What we know:
Distance between the termini of chain A: 32 Å
Oligomer: homodimer
Order of helices and strands of chain A: HEHHEEHHHH
Organism (chains A, B): Paenibacillus solanacearum
Low-confidence stretches of chain A: none
CATH superfamily of the largest domain in chain A: Winged helix-like DNA-binding domain superfamily/Winged helix DNA-binding domain
Helix content of chain A: 55-70%
CATH class of the largest domain in chain A: Mainly Alpha
Pfam family, one (chains A, B): PadR
Number of domains of chain A: 2
Strand order of the largest sheet of chain A: 1-3-2
InterPro entries (chains A, B): Tscrpt_reg_PadR_C (IPR018309), Tscrpt_reg_PadR_N (IPR005149)
Strand content of chain A: 5-15%
Radius of gyration of chain A: 21 Å
Shape of chain A: elongated
Protein name (chains A, B): PadR family transcriptional regulator
Keywords (chains A, B): Coiled coil
Largest interface: A-B, 52 and 52 residues
Amino acid sequence: MSSIQYVLLSLLAREPLSGYDMKQQINGRISFFYKISNNQLYPTLSKLETEEYIRLQSHERESYRPAKKIYTITDKGLDSLKAWVISPSEPGAWDEFLLKQYSSWLVEPEVMIAQLVERRKEHEARLEEYTVKAASLRGQEERIEAGHPLFSSIGVIEMGILFERGYADWCDKMIGWLRENRI
Amino acid sequence: MSSIQYVLLSLLAREPLSGYDMKQQINGRISFFYKISNNQLYPTLSKLETEEYIRLQSHERESYRPAKKIYTITDKGLDSLKAWVISPSEPGAWDEFLLKQYSSWLVEPEVMIAQLVERRKEHEARLEEYTVKAASLRGQEERIEAGHPLFSSIGVIEMGILFERGYADWCDKMIGWLRENRI
DNA sequence: GTAAACATGTAAATTGTTACATGATTTT
DNA sequence: AAAATCATGTAACAATTTACATGTTTAC
C-alpha cells in the first residue's frame, strides 16, 4: 500500500482543504522527498471519500467552471491516520518515517520517542558502515585524482555519510524536543 | 526513461560483474537513495545486452544450476553512460544527480564543476526558503507543545533544512576536491 | 534440519509519470 | 496577445513492488 492516502489525511487532519490546496502544500513543503501528480491526487480523493475517510465540506462554485471541492477528515479517517503513524516502518524507509512524523502531534509522545530512538540506531549504524567504507576506499591509493573511479566512489559515499549523520542528528533533536514538550 | 540502465552501466564501467554482484553493490552502497529488485535487474540486463551496451564476458557454471553470467561494458555502453552523466538533471532530482556523480570520473572535471555550482545554488535557495518558513512557523505561537500541529510541521521542516544544508555542503566539498584534483 | 546466501529469472498487481482536456482570470 | 495561475479530472504508458519458481551450498 502506498503512502499517498495518508499524506492527504495528514494535511486534512490540520485543516479542511481542496485537492488543489493539498498539491500546493506538498510541492511547497515536502517536495524534497515526496511528490504528487494530478493523476494520483484526484482518484485517491474520490476513493477516500467513498470509503468515508474524508467528507466533502463545501463545493464552492465561483464564476468559472471547476468548483473548488473542500474536504474535511472524518473520525474514521483520523483513526486510520493515527494507526498508520504508530505502525512501524521498514528499516531504510526513511521517507515514509518522515511522512509519519508530520502527523506525530496526533499520538502519544512516548510512542514517537521510542520509534525515533530505534531510527537513530539504524542511521548511526549505517553512518559507521559508510565511514569505514570511505576510509578503506581512501586507503587503496595514496593519491586519488579526479579521473580515478575511486574519486567518484568516495564522493558518493561522502554524501551517504552526510545523509546518515543528518538523519541521526535530526532524530536526536526530535527526541529532545519531545522530552521537553516544546520545540 | 528511468535511471536503472545507467546505474548498471555505472557499475560495469569499473569492473565486470554479474547481475547478482550488481545487486549486492547497489544494496550495500547506495541503498539510502537507490533500490533495485530482481524483476527490474534481469530484464534490463538482457535489454542492455541485445542493444549492445554490455556484453557477456563469461558464463561460469559451477556445481549447481544458475550459471554466473559476468558482463562487461562495451564502447557503445561507455559512450552512452558519459552522455547521460553530462546531461542536465531536472531541479529537484537530487537522487539522479547523485547517481550521475558516481560516474563523474569518466568526464571532464570542468563540466562536473559547472553542474555542481548550479546544484549548490538550487539547494542553497531551498535552504533559505525552508529557514524562513521554519522561523515563520515558530513565530505563530510562543510555546509549541508536542500535541500541537506546528510541532510536527516544524520538525519536518527542520529535516528539510538539514537535508538542503547537507546537500549544499556536499556540492562545496566536491567542487573543492575537483579543483584540487584529489579527494 | 532449518535458514540464509548464492544465482537467475517470470507473472501479476500496483504505483507513478506524462500528456491531455476544459475554461475563466490574472499577470507579463 | 501570450502565458501563467486557478481547479478538476482522464487516458495511455512506464516503472516498481511483491510474490513466485528453481536448486545448491554453507552456516547455525
